[in-house]
Amino acid sequence: MKYYVRYLLVISLSVSISACSIGSKPGLPINHDLGFITEQTADSVTIMLDAPVWLWDDRIRYRLLYDDATVIRYYNRDRWEAPLPALLERRLTIAGLRQPIHLQLQLTQFEQQFETADSANVVMTLKASTYADNGIRLLGKRTFNLLQKTVSPDAAGAITGFIALIEQAQTEIQSWLETMSDEP
C-alpha cells in the first residue's frame, strides 16, 4: 500500500509539473531583426558602424517624454536578434558609386519616444564620415537626424518604424554620397 501511495504521489507531481509547461510561454523573449536583407554585389562603399556602449545591446529602448524624459525603458519581451549596431551595419547597403569610399557611421541615438501614451515616434541619429578609397583622406562629414511616426504605440509599432527609418537613412546617405561622387 505504501508503494501505491508513493506511486500516485509521483504521478500526480509529474502531471502537475508537465501541465505548467503545456501551452504558450508568455515570459519568453521575442527576437526581432531589421527585415530581409538582399545581397549586394560589386559595392564600392565599405561601411563601418560603431555606437556607444549602451547601444551595443539586444534590448529595444523607449522613453516616455510626457512622464520623465530622462528615464530609459526597455520592452520586457521584445529584443533584437543581435546587438543593434551589428544588425544595422548588416542592413545598411549603399549601391555602387563611381569611386570606392569608406563610410564610417557613428550611431548615437536609436529609440522609440512617446509624446503621449497613444503617440510615439522612432528616432535615429547617425554621424557619417566618408574617406577616399585609401581610408585616409576625409571627403566629407554629415549628421543624419531621422524621425518616423510609429503605426502603433508599442513594440510592434517601434519595429515597423525602425525598419522604415533605416530605409529613409539609407536613401539619404545614398543621395549624399552621390553628390560627393559627382564632385571632381
3D architecture notes:
Residues 15-24 have low confidence and may be disordered. Strand 5 and strand 6 form a beta hairpin. The protein has helices at 2-20, 84-91, 155-182; strands at residues 30-32, 45-50, 59-64, 73-80, 101-116, 119-132, 138-149. It has a single domain, classed as ABC-type transport auxiliary lipoprotein component (Rossmann fold), CATH 3.40.50. With 184 residues, the protein is of the alpha/beta class. The protein is 30% helix and 35% strand. It contains 3 helices and 7 strands; from the N terminus they run αββββαβββα.
Key terms:
single chain; 184 residues; alpha/beta; Rossmann fold; seven-stranded mixed sheet; 3 helices; 7 strands; 30% helix; elongated
* Main pleated sheet: 7 strands, mixed
Overall structural domain count: 1
N-to-C order of helices and strands:
HEEEEHEEEH
Q: Rg from C-alpha positions?
A: 23 Å
The total count of helices amounts to 3
Beta-strand portion reads: 35-45%
What's the CATH class label?
Alpha Beta
Shape: elongated
CATH level 4 superfamily? ABC-type transport auxiliary lipoprotein component
Quickly give the structural class: alpha/beta
Spans of 5+ residues with little confidence (pLDDT < 50)? 15-24
Average pLDDT figure: 81
CATH architecture annotation: 3-Layer(aba) Sandwich
Q: Strand tally, please? A: 7
What percentage of residues falls in helices of 4 or more residues? Answer: 25-40%
